Amino acid sequence: MQEAADALARNELVRAEPILRERLKQSPTDIGAIRMLAELAGRIGRNKDAETLLRRALELAPGFAAARHNLAIALHRQGRSDEAIGEIDQLLALEPGHPSYINLKAAALARLGDYEPSIALYRQVLISYPNQPKVWMSLGHSLKTIGRQDESIDAYRRGLDLQPTLGEAWWSLANLKTVRFTDADRAAMRAALDLPGLTDEDRFHLQFALGKAEEDEGRYETSFGHYVEANHQRRALIDYDPAELSASVDRQPEIFTRDFFAAREGWGALRDDPIFVVSLPRSGSTLIEQILASHSQVEGTTELSDIATLAARVGLSGMAALTEDEARALGEEYLDRTRIQRKTDRPRFVDKMPNNWAHVGFIRLILPNAIIIDARRHPLGCCLSNFKQHFARGQTFTYDLADIGLYYADYVRLMDHYDGVLPGHVHRVFYEAMVEDTEAQVRALLAHARLDFEPACLRFHETERAVRTASSEQVRRPIFREGMEQWRHFEPWLDPLRQALGGLIEAYPYQA
Question: Model pTM?
Fold first, then answer.
C-alpha cells in the first residue's frame, strides 16, 4: 500500500494500478485500496468507475470522509453537481470550516449557476487562507461569469502574484478578450516557460496566453507559433479520433430519414420550452443566446450536457428501436434533468451546448416542438478561432487545424441532411449577416422561435446575466465587426485547415 501511495504521489499510474488490483484480490474490503484505485480512475477521466468504487468504500465505511470527498469530486466532474453538494454538506456538517469542502461546494454552486453564494464561499476560504492562488483564480472565474470584470482581473492578478507560473490564470486574463498584456506580463510568461518542473497544464496555458498577447501586438507569425505549440501540447494529452465522429455522421442519414420522422409524427414530449442553439464554438452562438435571453419569455442557461448524455445512453441503433412511450419518457427526462438550471419562472429556456448539432435527429424525436437554431460563421474564421481558444473541457477536436476542418465539414454535412428531411425545422443564423443587419436577423430569429419581437433583444448587451463561455465579455458590448476578418492575419499558415475544409470555403454564402 505504501508503494502504491508513493506511485500515485509521483503520478506513476501504470505502476500503481497493478499493485492496487492485486491488493484488492487479496483483501476485497480494503477501503484504503478501493479509495486509491478510485483516485487513479479519476485522474484518467474514468469518473463513473471512480464513483462506483467510492460508493463501495462508503458502504463498507460510511464515516470514511476522504472517500466521501472523492465521491463529491467524481460527481461534480460528471456534471452532477447537485448530487455533489449533497455529499459535501454531509462532510461540512461534521467539519464546518474545512477549506477543501467549502472550495468544492463553491465550484459546484458555480457549475449550477448559483454564482453569488459561490463567490461568498470562495471569499470565506480566502479570509482564512489568503495565499491560495487557485482559489483566487476560481473566484476570478465566478466574478467574470456574472460580469464583474474588474474584480475578476484583480482576483486573477492576486493568484499570479502568489504563483507566477499559474498558466490558467494567465490564460484566463487573455480569455477575457479585453485585457492588453504589458511588456512585464509577457516577460513574466516567458520566464515561467523557462522554469524547470513546469506542469504540462501550466505550459500549454502559458502558450495560449502568449499567443493572444503577441496577436494583440500585431506580431502574427510569433503569435501563431505560440498557438501551434499550445495546441500541439494539448493534443498530446487527449484521445480524439475524428473518424469516430465521421462514422456517426455517416450513419445518421440511414436512420433519420423523412419516412422515419413521418412515421413518428407527434411522438416525444410536446412541450416547447427548450430552444437549442447548435454550432461549433466561436460561431456567434453566445450572441444568439444573449439576444434570446434578453426576451421576457426566455431564460438563458448554459451549455447543458443532458442531450449528449441521453443520446449516448440510447445509442444510434437504439434510437431507431424506441417506442412512442420511450421517446416521450426521454423528452420528459430531459426537461426534468434541466430544471435545476432554471433560475426564473420564464416559460422558455436556451440550451447552448454547441455539440448538439450531432443530435438534431434525436432532439426532434424526443422533443418535436423544441426550437433549433444553427449558428454559422465563415469556416476559416470559425475554425481558426477554435484553434486559438483553450476550452476547459469537452471540445477535444479543437487542438489540430486538420481535426477542426474535418469536424466543421461533418457538421455542415449533417446539417445539410436535416435541411433535406426536416425542411424549415432548423433556423440558420449567419454571424456575418447578424453583424450587417442586426434588426432583420433578430426579428427572423424571434419569429422562428415563436416569440414576439421585443426591443430589449436589440439591446442585448444591457442584459445582466451569467455568461460562462469565452464570449462572455464580447456579448456585454454592442455588436461589432472586428472579429469578422481576424483570420486573414494568419492566412499564410492555414493550409492544413483549407485542405480539410475543401470546397466549404468557397461555398460559404457570406465570404468577404
Answer: 0.85
